[in-house]
Amino acid sequence: MHISRPQPQRITAKNIIVDIDDTLWPLAPTLHDELSLHYSIPPVSEWSDFGWWKKFMTIEEFWTISTGISLRQDQYDPYPEAHIFLLAIKEMGFNPIIASHRKAITSSATQKFIIKNELACGHLHISQDKTVLFDQNCIAVIDDNPDILEKAAMRGIPAFGLKCPWNREKRDHLYDNLFDILDCIKALKDQPTEILA
Ligand SMILES: [Mg+2]
Q1: CATH no. for residue 19?
Q2: Is 62 among the domain residues?
Q3: Helices 178-189 and 82-91: crossing angle, nearest 10°?
Q4: pLDDT in tens, 142-186
Q5: From the CA of 108, how far away is ligand 1's center (Å)?
Q6: Total domain count for the chain?
Q7: Please, which residues have CB less than 5 A from ligand 1, an ion?
Q8: Ligand 1: distance of its center to the CA of 1 in Å?
Q9: pLDDT tens per residue across span 11-26
Q10: In this structure, is residue 5 part of a structural domain?
Q11: Domain encompassing residue 59
Q12: pLDDT digits (tens, 9 = 90+) for 122-140
């Protein structure tokens, strides 16, 4: 009787969740300029945690200004490599879901940003909680927010991000540019896994 060895399962999940702010475009310098008009705040290099701004303003005040920027999202340029990055993900057979923690009223400007810059996007998700996307169909998460990276990792989902002052305490899986993250996605593509399949 022949008994075949069980083969490791291949990844069957398809979705890769890609953040917008400080992942596909550099929000921080613009946010600094806008906030500086109203508050005396430190330079971006001193934004040492994701909630640094709470010492300087209320959450309502922060959201008013950050939403104002998001409402003009189509006027800002993405990182130069963002187009190629998302296209490469799509060409690998994955489904890039662009997901951002922002208000629904910013949806139109965000869609324009995606279309204008030809960013490959299977679905645009705008909400106050992108972790609803962290399910069995999700192969990877790309975000600069250390809390989001942690939540993905806790669910066994590989998570990567660009290095920023507010995530410098998180040492692993942070990179200088999107091409380095793309190399990680390529490595995932052919990697057998029993966790994600
Ligand atoms: Mg972000």
Answers
A1: 3.40.50.1000
A2: yes
A3: 10
A4: 999 999 999 999 999 999 999 999 998 887 899 999 999 999 999
A5: 18
A6: 1
A7: 19, 21-22, 144
A8: 56
A9: 566 999 999 999 999 9
A10: no
A11: 15-189
A12: 899 999 999 999 999 999 9
